[in-house]
Amino acid sequence: MESIEIRATSIKDINDIMQIEPMSFGASHWSRSTFINEINNINSQYLSAEIISSQKKDNSKIVGYIGYWKVLDEGHITTLAIHQDYRRRHVADILLYNLICNASLNSIKWLTLEVRVSNIAALNLYKKFKFKHLGIRKNYYQSDNEDAYVLWTENINNPEYLEYIKGIISPFVNKKANTDKLQYTIPAKQLK
Fold first, then answer.
1. Hey, where are the domains in the chain?
2. What residues are labeled active site?
3. What is the DSSP letter of 188?
4. 2-186 in CATH: which number?
5. Which of 55, 66, 151, 161 has the highest CB neighbour count under 10 A?
């Protein structure tokens, strides 16, 4: 078992992010300068999942990230990526939960995004968090002209919804003693 913390993404995370980005998105990944612009954009919010080393803080590393643009009372999820060694360990669940909570605190009511029609893992994640399929964008992805589903939430500030998503990540919450910070314990990687 390992522990992660979710925190605001900073410029110092770029090197770790740029290792994850091409393994997640191939040739169509964002550039270093695009990420720097996004992190510095006042209308966007990015969160990183950082592995917490039990030995030294210097040994920590970013294993996933997520971000969204704020447009009035709507949030548009722009990216979600997990290092391949940490996939299927609920890091995406924890990041998405924290993004939803962050968006709610920032007066966002609804979240939307586009996702590849072939990305079954992502579609299952968003379905688990009650995103609904609202349409399709034909030839959305320029690299291969793949279609994208448009997904949307109901009002994320609904108390029943917030309680529902809290239940998704509750098995992984590990509150640190004497602080308000939460850590999450993720299961060990499963052997195939």
1. 2-186
2. 114, 126
3. P
4. 3.40.630.30
5. 66
